[in-house]
Amino acid sequence: MRIKTFAAAVLAGLLSGCASQPEDVPILFHSTDPYVDLECQRLVAERAQLAARERQLYQVLKPRAGKFDEDAAMNAVVLLPTLFFGSGGVSRDTSVYALVKSRIKAVDEVFADKECAKELQGEGESTSG
Fold first, then answer.
1. Considering the chain, what is the average pLDDT of its residues?
2. CA atoms of 27 and 99, how far apart (whole Å)
3. Which residue from 91, 88, 102, 17 is spatially nearest to 61, judged by alpha carbons?
4. Euclidean distance between CA atoms 67 and 75, whole angstroms
């Protein structure tokens, strides 16, 4: 029985070592509070910064997607308890990517709530006419 449990744990560790596709990284909850007091122009700038960081991380994660992570295999064999209590082979870049995606969603929510699109469109019309 113990051998089956050990084999299942090792298999889980090996499978968790395969990096997921960046598109499959879930969006986490991120509070909109840091963005509520920002003006629409600042929200646009913040969104642009976050989008640039997202693209950068995507370029880092995409080549790794589906490849075997040797560190996860080592964890499966040597650090077996981390399979039950650890992160399950999620890389730091993947965690940051999820956070950035979540922040983009929060900025987008505040942008929509403040109706910034209308405000910015109105500014563009008044300066062009």
1. 74
2. 7
3. 91
4. 16
Cβ–Cβ < 8 Å for 100, 50: yes
Tokens of 1: 């029985």
Q: For residue 91, how many other CB atoms are within 10 A of its CB?
A: 18
Amino acid at 12: A
Those residues of the chain that have pLDDT short of 50 are: 4-19, 68, 74-75, 77-83, 87, 129
The answer to whether 57 touches 97, Cβ cutoff 8 Å, is: yes
Q: From CA 21, how far away is CA 57, in angstroms rounded?
A: 12
Q: How many Å apart are CA 31 and CA 105, to the nearest integer? A: 10
The answer to whether 107 touches 46, Cβ cutoff 8 Å, is yes
Q: Give the residue among 39, 56, 9 at the shortest CA–CA distance from 107.
A: 39
CA distances for 26 relative to 38, 39, 48, 105, angstroms: 26, 28, 20, 12
DSSP letter for each residue of 76-92: HHH-HHHHHHS--S--H
Q: What pLDDT, on the 0 to 100 scale, is given for residue 62?
A: 84
